[in-house]
Amino acid sequence: MSKLFRLKEDYTPHPFRWWHIPLLLLLIGGTIYIARDARTAKHEPTATSRPFQRNEGAVFGTFYHMTYAGDMDMQPLIDSVLAEVDRSLSPFNPKSVITAINENASAETDARFRYVFRLAQRISTETEGAFDITCAPLVNAWGFGFKHAADVDSVMIDSILQFVGYDKIALNDKQVVKKDDRMMLDCSAIAKGYGVDAVTEMFDAHGIDSYMVEIGGEVRVKGTNPQGETWRIGINKPTDDPTNTNDELQDIISISDIAMATSGNYRNYYEKDRKRYAHTIDPRTGYPVQHSVLSATVLAPDCATADAYATAFMVMGLEQAQALLATKTELKAYLIYADGEGNNCVWHSKDLNLQPVE
Q: Is 86 helix (H, G, I), strand (E, B) or coil?
């Protein structure tokens, strides 16, 4: 028999007295107070003890990874939000809004499409056309879009440029108006970032105050990580890696309450006749970019903006990107470029919180 049971057997109750009542009430009150505090601690845990959920899945031809504070598994809601974005902006979805517009089957838009379209048009204006979602025919011609590549020559490019340009398309109320029916849209340089924003908007609506949402390398963070610290996001070294298997880091940035997106040519390219063609197309010339910037990482208040500017900086090159950043205080950047001798160099905004790579 255990000691506990022996104590219970040996216990002899004392007679109850009236002066026991205040002591009993004090004990009961203390018990209620402690229990209440315990319940509060359970539902409002500290930064180091609160539960974090982790979800991952496939979307937009890539993968997502999400970490967030909370008791509820949000994956069904995450997938629902991303499905809405896909039905609006994916040219690979035959029933999407953008597919209907590209095929001239319908000019009707939804709210998600209109938001992204207006943001894209604003950034196109600010970058003087370096970012342009009407570049789909060029991207397809060079073999990086949702159509098959063609044998490209200058005559073809000049012909395509006649129906490429953000100034040749507009929104009239809820309808897209094209100047040429051959115009096609490609939102791949902004849609992943917008998908990140759509999920974080849903998280915010559910009161989630700490999260890291990542889709295909585009990230938005808020609050603190499971260790109660700011989020640490790595920037990959720009090495030739078309298989996307190299995870060697160039630097680590410590961030919170901000979005971050990266664009680079070192992974997405193809070679033909011993010549390499980068996937970033300059919408103004119709040709893949040929300058020293290897990777552009942009930090902005929202991920769609960061995503679009990262692509724009890849088109603009180092000096033009630096000049624009000097006028856009809400943006920060980390640019990796090759010097005259082919060595990788880094330029970044002064106030980035860089951490050593361990």
A: helix
Give the DSSP letter string of 245-302.
----EEEEEEESSEEEEEEESSSSEEEETTEEEES-B-TTTSSB--SSEEEEEEEESS
Region 47-53: mean pLDDT is 73
What local confidence, expressed as pLDDT, does residue 148 receive?
59
CB 198 within 8 A of CB 88: no
Listed residue (113, 66, 115, 63) closest to 86, CA to CA: 113
Give the residue from 240, 199, 251, 208 showing the smallest Cα distance to 358. 251
Q: How confident is the model at residue 280 (pLDDT cuts 50, 70, 90)?
A: confident
Q: For the chain, what is the mean pLDDT?
A: 84
Residues 259, 274: contact at Cβ < 8 Å? Answer: no
pLDDT of residue 244: 53
Residue 49: CB atoms within 10 A of its CB come to 10
**Least confident among 16-30, 105-119, 199-213, 219-233:** 16-30
| Non-local CB neighbours of 189 within 8 Å, separated by 6+ positions | 131, 133, 263, 307, 308, 310, 311
Task: Name the 3-class secondary structure at 125.
Answer: helix
Single pTM value for the model: 0.82
Q: What's the CA dihedral at 298, 241, 273, 289 to 10 degrees?
A: 10
DSSP states along 25-54:
HHHHHHHHHHHHHHHHHHHS--TTTS-EEE
| Alpha helices, H only, the chain | 3-10, 20-43, 75-89, 97-102, 111-126, 136-141, 154-161, 191-205, 303-316, 318-325
Amino acid at 91: P
Q: Which residue has the tokens 């995450």?
A: 78
State the pLDDT at residue 49. 60
